[in-house]
Amino acid sequence: MSAHATAAHPPLYAGGLRSWLTTVDHKRIGVLYGVSALFYFVVGGVEALIIRLQLASPTADVVGADTFNQLFTMHGTTMVFLVLMPLSAALFNYMIPLMIGARDVAFPRLNAFSFWTFFFGSVLLNLSFFVGDPPDAGWFGYANLTSKQYNPGMGIDFWLLSVQIMGIASIASAVNFTVTILNMRAPGMSLMRVPLFVWMALVVQVLMLLAFPPITVAFIFLMFDRFFGTHFYIPSAGGTPILWQHLFWIFGHPEVYILILPSFGVVSEVLPTFARKPLFGAPFMIFSGILIGFLGFGVWSHHMFTTGLGAVADTAFSLATMLIAIPTGVKIFNWIATLWGGHIRFRTPLYFAVGMVGLFIIGGLSGIMHASPPVDIQQHDSYFVVAHLHYVFFGGTVFGLFAGIYYWWPKVTGRMIGEGLGKLHFWLMVVGMNLTFFPMHFLGLDGMPRRIYTYATDLGWERWNMIATVGAFLIAVSVLVFFVNAARSLASKTQAPADPWDAATLEWTVSSPPPEYNFAVVPTVNSARPFWLHKYGPTRDISTRTKAQGTPAQPDNPPTRIDLPSPSSWPILAALGLALLGGGALVGLWMVLFGAAVLVFCVYRWAFQPLERTGHPTFGPAPSGGSS
Amino acid sequence: MDAHATTFGVPSRKMAMWVFIASECMFFGSLIATYLSYEGKSLVGPTPREILNIPLTSVSTFVLLMSSLAMVLALEAVQTGNRRGARMWLGAVVVLGGLFLAGQVYEFREFYHEGLTLQQNLFGATFFVLTGFHGAHVTVGVIWMVTLLVMSLRGQLGPERSLDVEVAGLYWHFVDVVWIVIFTVVYLIQ
Amino acid sequence: MAEHPTHETAHAGAHASKGTYWLIALVLGILTLLEVAVFYVPLLHSVIVPILLVLSSAKFALVAMFFMHLKFDKPILTTLFAGGLVVATAIILSMMLLFGTIGPGAHM
Amino acid sequence: MLVSIRLQTAEAVSRERSTLSKTLLAALLLPIAGCAAVESPDWRTLRPVSDFGVLVLDVYGDLFWWTAGIFVVVELLLIYALVRYRSRSGDSEVPDQVHGFTALEIGWTLLPAAILFFIAIPTVRTIFLLQGAPPDRDPLEITVIGHQWWWEFRYPELGIVTANELHVPVGRTASLTLTSADVIHSFWVPQIGGKRDLNPGSENRLWFTPTEPGVYHGQCAELCGTSHANMRMRLFVDDSASFAQWSAAMRATAAPDSAGVMTFLISGCAACHTIAGTPAQGKVGPDLTSVGSRTTLASSMIPNTPEMMAAWLRSPDSVKPGALMPDLNLDEQRIADLVEFLEGLR
Ligand code: HEA
Ligand code: HEA
Ligand code: CUA
Ligand SMILES: [Cu+2]
Fold first, then answer.
1. In which domain, by residue range, is B184 found?
2. Quick one: closest CA in B to A218, which residue?
3. Fewest 10 Å CB contacts: which of A132, A370, A392, D20?
4. Pairing of the two strands D302-303 and D165-169
5. Searching chain D, which residue's CA lies closest to the CA of residue A436?
């Protein structure tokens, strides 16, 4: 059937560079996000490897003190903003419209704008390497180390401007996806029928909407301090660097849930599919996700237990933090219950999903230790925190997102991906990551602070550091295995079926890869597992009391003409204008003004460009009459 | 695709504006939180009490409130196809918004002459950044309104485009609402 | 498509009449006058904060409900707005507590 | 067509004889095995030498056992489910479509809540203990000032100012007032207990009563710039007699040899350093009044030997990257004189 389909409509990814630059198709934008994120994963990973080489022994002299500070700052910033966020965005972009039965997102061109803004922001950040002055104050850049007085170079400016620009991209994309999820669902898809992945995505969008403005404000203050001589964070003029800590963590803690919830969502799709059961207690899963997001705004000062906020504040934030264990526990237990009684098929996506659950628990439990201020004042800013954050980021997010990558790989590429290499990837990664990050708990308990480029020889820290370094290279090997696997899959000729895992949700009712218009016929939904219901009937699905027969696979050809949004150059140009405006602050006022002019011009052109290519035929010869 | 009715029966652009406004609440919330956290912590003067000009700001507050009235009336006019009304009220929004901005420019200049600058003290920094970003929002709003006005003058703003005006209006009213808060918190509660 | 200007059911009846708008504007003006008045009456200075908060909340609510049509529009919009507003308010209050602007040790 | 795909997947499953679960078990036990391999870990934070550290360790102990217990139970449940419910060969049946079980779910909402209760109680109690008044009514007051990248210690009641090596008597509560001269630093001696930040523009407090004489490693824990890694310190817990001796020696500095003082002054050192009883009253660098009596130099980077001292004076930056003491381009003779002079300051 698929061979048929490819002949019938133009292949999804055909077209030259220009078609990628001007695309407004959510699927292609998803691919763009994914490729950028994987690229930066290697960049951030190589930075980490250099860090590990330097720390492998107390006498190592791979990089100097300043370079080391730049490396972990860039590593942290890269992994958070250039890897995990865009990787989640990749899955959101590609899958959400498919999973809710929509033909695209609510604002396709805004979507393209978000991607390019992110992309130019990420380029700006890494340009700092080329001018030889990367930021060096850590990924949370505590004031007043970032002030002109203590950090006169341009590194901090690169950092604050680029993260600021990427923040705008995140807010734009969050507006877009909030509206898409709320407002673009297929008929019959009530909120309680929305797949868990999409639900978690919705919570993430709301968190982004509410968490990015505070850090924007924090950056604005920093910018004013550095460029215009204000004293927001300068103690000698009555300001306090602690203001930065608050504003940063008001953003920063929700941010870590922004990074974990997509992975929770993936796991909640993968486990049911491979256990061949519905997700256990889906409503509980939804509410616990919302609760995690909501509570996430009330715990920020748990990063500041050594700051000296006083016993009352410490108590309040400690208790609030502990509460988060409850909804998170619900998730863990419901996942186990989903597996319970299933017929579990051990395919690569399941490996990664199970790995995520097993490893995230470790990170979550060390988080609970941090939540207790008396304990945390020992662990804070030590390698114990580094262990915690990598168990939740790597064990939690990276494993979860890899589960998603393997799970949806056939859908996105139209090719199956090797099981053997996939499992090898998994095992190398599990062993490598435990070898790397578990010993860091020991180092932290032994008093090793984080962010040190060297340590004295008589402290006894070299053994565990060496082991961690070996582990890091094992992770690198596992990543290489993944790339080999991916390349082999892309080179292979066998077409993946539309529904390789016998799954339950709408994205599997369309061909692999999906046609440009996603759904030939807008589906009607009457269950949380519409496709499953169609395949196995209502008797097996006790949640559905209707007699309806679910949502069938899509026909190959649309019965009617479908209008799609036309490609446009204005989003990418507007994003370029925005980047010039922001980055221009490093060059001169004229550059800022030029960027602003480009931005305004493009926004006007964009606003007055008709959205749809009228009467674009989806069949037959490729479209030629698109405007732009 | 065009036939695709939205799930909530709300046009997506309108919902998007509300979502954006929710985000803006946090933006201004953070600025206001900082202003209040630093209140009274300046090491040197001028202080708010010495410098804030209540009569002037009361007038510009009133101006901004009335611009909101003009805004709903403009929307009303567009929806009912009343072209003349649309032009008149959109024009009024532009004029009132411009007046507000002029008031702010005047105020900033006065303060500057009285020694309150961004760099002078924490009050100056927090005050100018908070009200300045509000002013920037008003400026964007005025530009948007001018655009609508031009469209209207060119006869492109029929009832079928009333959503354009409604969304712009939401933005405008929100900026007004933020000013209500700033006026109270910064100017009246000192 | 959503970016397409639609004029279907969405805002049929989703607003008040012109007269109401004028009335609301009048009330807003009066409330502003009251606020300024309160500011200048020394007698009220001990209770100025609560009074002003009530008055400005009233203004806020009037604009949101009538000019922004929340009163007549779909509840989802109110929910979205309220979400941002509630979190923002909570953050403002917590910051004021943490910095000692209000609460024990306040020097206001 | 659909049916055939379904069959295909079922076949694939039946062919699969996964070893995931078994190996997973091994992998998850790896960390535990790792712990066990280190016979009775003697990591610094687990070997406190102060009342403060013991209070902290008590809570850590509570938390460790709770979380270890949760870890084992939950991971075992996970592994059990994987092993028990793996799909078997030839199985093409669809399992029972269980959607949930509310009572159970409420149960595992309440259970963690109950556990948290037991974690929260010692936590809150200890927060207030640690941040309350010091147990000793007459603690030894010490002011700690962080500098990029060294520590200044002042004993107001004893009239002592020193750097990088903190002396406290065993058994007497030390009450620290912490602040910073430039950026944020964080005071941390792992065996004493938790850290506390040194914030510019405000003061923090930290008290502890050392219980065991000895020398303990400490280090700045908040990123503070280039040589953050090198901002170390040594904490000397002295028995009462040697503390008395030390503080007496620190106060009774003999008048320094005047030729040495001259060299010191003409070399430009006085712009930054203080030597009590001389015109050198600089405040930028460490007080050198008794520098000869320190065991280490440059915040515990190098041992205090004449050779190392000379190396430091020759090029501070190559001993400590970014050091804020400039290279004064001294000739070897000058350096030798200065070393001799400084080492004599006791
Ligand atoms: C994906 C990201 C992510 C996630 C999900 C979490 C989750 C949690 N984090 Fe973590 N955290 C980070 C990323 C994350 N964190 C990062 C990056 C830092 C460091 C930043 C920096 O300094 O650079 C950090 C730092 C950090 C600190 C500050 C440490 C310090 O610097 O001193 C604290 C303190 O409370 C903390 C706590 C928690 C808690 C309580 C959770 C909870 O959400 C965990 C809840 C989960 C569980 C508890 C496990 C499952 C539950 C059960 C099996 C039920 C039963 C359990 C109990 C009854 C306990 N984290
Ligand atoms: C968000 C996700 C994330 C991820 C995935 C990682 C992944 C890794 N991290 Fe990172 N890390 C952070 C987030 C993350 N980290 C953050 C936020 C900080 C705090 C920063 C700060 O203090 O400001 C931090 C800090 C941090 C430190 C502490 C630095 C310090 O305090 O001094 C260390 C030290 O070992 C470390 C190591 C690693 C390693 C070895 C990996 C590995 O898992 C990386 C694996 C990936 C690869 C190895 C890429 C694969 C490469 C190839 C396939 C190419 C092979 C090519 C060659 C070998 C040339 N990280
Ligand atoms: Cu001082 Cu780090
Ligand atoms: Cu946190």
1. 12-188
2. B30
3. A132
4. unpaired
5. D31
